[in-house]
Write a structure and sequence with these properties.
The structure is a homodimer. Chain A is mainly alpha-helical and about 400 residues long. Chain A is built from 16 helices and no strands. Chain A starts with a helix and ends with a helix. At the A-B interface, helix 1, helix 2, helix 3, helix 5 and helix 6 of A face helix 1, helix 2, helix 3, helix 5 and helix 6 of B.
């Protein structure tokens, strides 16, 4: 009994966490409930299970299957479902007609061959990457519709009536879904993609802004005053690499909305996302150096502190400017000066590493982390420049 | 006309590539076609669209929707579909009975409220990560079944008859799917996961075995004799990090097969996979150093060549032993000696970096890559040791 209660509390906490993490989830659930109720009521007063009324059931089914979180996903699934039913249904009617010509004995054989061939072909087509990205669901519905129509024992005119009813019900279902999805606080996959890319770059900026001063703190300072916030956020970039592709596939289905037009260059976001990911790799390496708690000797610190801090700061500033120019959707002209500064700092570091003689008296092992950080930061400067070009 | 022909040739080539890449795709398509044909024939001689015969349609639908590539995915979807239909259908019958008590006016209102509440709750529950991983499809089918049953205009006894027919048809469909899926060249997600993890470690081993000698080649040698093979394969590890989670979720549904028992510790594979991924990060950094074409001076080379090559070779050997002990499923006792060797080499490198005075006369910039490689390889030795512990 006590275990059950603890379990309930746990579920409650998890629910609250899910809600707080993204309140849109609750809104989505309410929207789906509303849509389903509307469609059910539309069909409530019709007898649902009489001969052709069966197709009315498809409206309810369409809502449950097609209503997705983002508008793009809903449009994609809805169009896939409607057109796949239409075309594959037509094809199935043709196959049914052909099979019927061969008489009572030949008909099941011919039909089976048709079903087998279509099912094999379409299933294999689902493995093509370009089809999988946009039309996977449509392929499945095509197999379904073709089988339904071609194995049905109906006359040709009955089939056309059935098909017409079914397609129109599905269209109605999709339309209700889209109206509710767009009119009540719409969630655009494109907007999500845009925000996520900007947020990821902001995480990187946050890291670089904090990194320089954190690294050159003394060990005592660092422990007294642990500020791990700046160094944790970038990790979500490394975890979320697949989500952008999904959002991109949905965003391509979306009509123009907000400040995005139809056929907005969504692909560019993927490019920026990939570069951000690359940069997060380097950040991860830098962070591992930080947490190894290796103490620099005074001399080395004096030598590299200034250019390293400047590179880190200027990279952070560049990224911040990029974030704001992505958010406001203008050319990142303000970022150029910071790129220039960070490049200058990188040059300075290289020169000081080249000329300095002070290294001679110190242990080479203490040098490794400094050298690593130097080269990583130089890498990062390159990376930010590429991101700036892509914006 | 010519453009069309070129397009066709392109599609032909792509098809061939897909086939060669994994011939199982063709077999899967044939299997699905066969299953669908069998189920269609079972129902061909029954009138498909008479009053209760509608539920026969569900067998065809079940095959198309449930038949997935791996056995695990098929079992998961099939069980989800069958049990969700059973439970939600029962719940729907209860709701329908309750609503009917309130008379002709109250019934649609009560039913709508029930549908709304259930749809909202289950949709929100789909966001729970633990439910999403295993029961996402079941939640969707539950909403569907509940709506169908509760809004139907049937009498209670008719509902029970309908439900019984539908659930038994779905069970029949799932059983045919499973029989075909398991009896004709089954594709086990667990086996896939096992192979993929072993292959990934083998890619790492391949890299380390080639890396040492490749890095210490002179620039001329390297260009004359480009061997990029060993350095490309590891990249697939970085790209495929999501696939393992999917396979893991499927593998949990699978009964014992081959040398795997039911409840095989699949989670352990995810752990090894994550470590392999970490190690591939380092490999990526090492590879970037290689492609930067930085030439080492003679002295530095002489100093670090031996321990570095040994670390790389021994890490490679350790990983190879781990691969073979994963493949043969025994304890990796043979790997221990190589781990020991690579640790010794790492120690040697550290010592020689510490003691050597020869660095004093050379440019520090040329030192950075050497130092980086040294520290990365030391990291890698740690990594391989952790992988060995996890196996």
């Amino acid at each position: 009994m006590k275990g059950l209660f603890a379990k309930l509390v746990e579920i409650g906490n998890e629910t609250k966490a899910l809600w707080k993490d993204d309140p849109r989830r609750v809104i989505h659930a309410l929207k789906l409930g509303l849509t389903l109720t509307i469609v059910s009521l539309l069909y409530y007063y019709r007898p649902l299970y009489d001969n052709f009324g069966v197709s009315a059931m498809w409206a309810v089914m369409t809502v449950v299957v097609v209503f997705e979180f983002s508008v793009g996903a809903t449009v994609g699934k809805g169009l896939n479902r409607a057109f796949a039913t239409l075309f594959a249904g037509g094809l199935g009617a043709g196959a049914h007609h052909l099979a019927a010509l061969s008489g009572r004995v030949g008909q099941p054989i011919i039909t089976s061959i048709f079903v087998f061939l279509i099912a094999c072909t379409l299933t294999f087509m689902r493995f093509f990457p370009s089809i999988k990205a946009k039309y996977d669901y449509g392929m499945m519905i095509s197999i379904l519709s073709f089988s339904f129509v071609s194995i049905s024992g109906l006359r040709d005119d009955e089939i056309f009536l059935l098909l017409q009813k079914r397609v129109s019900t599905i269209f109605l279902g999709v339309c209700v879904c889209l109206i509710i999805s767009i009119s009540i606080s719409p969630f655009w996959a494109g907007q999500d993609l845009h925000n996520r890319i900007a947020l990821n770059i902001e995480y990187l900026a946050l890291f670089f802004e904090g990194y320089g001063s954190e690294y050159f703190k003394t060990l005592q300072d660092r422990e007294a005053n642990k500020d791990e916030n700046f160094s944790q956020s970038y990790k979500s970039i490394l975890k979320s690499s697949g989500i952008e592709d999904t959002l991109y596939n949905f965003a391509r289905w979306e009509p123009g909305h907000g400040c995005f037009q139809f056929r907005h260059p969504w692909k560019q976001y993927l490019k920026i996302g990939a570069l951000t990911y690359q940069c997060a790799f380097r950040v991860d390496a830098l962070h591992r150096n930080l947490s190894s708690n290796f103490q620099l000797s005074q001399e080395i610190r004096a030598e590299i502190q200034e250019p390293c801090m400047e590179m880190s700061m200027e990279s952070g500033k560049t990224l911040r400017k990029l974030v704001s120019s992505i958010r406001e959707m203008n050319q990142p002209t303000q970022a150029e000066i910071h790129i220039h500064n960070s490049k200058a700092a990188a040059k300075k570091l290289k020169a000081s590493l080249k000329s300095s003689r002070m290294w001679e008296n110190c242990d080479l092992l203490t040098l490794i982390p400094a050298a690593t950080i130097g080269s990583l930061l130089i890498d990062v400067v390159d990376c930010t420049e590429k991101i700036a070009e892509a914006v």
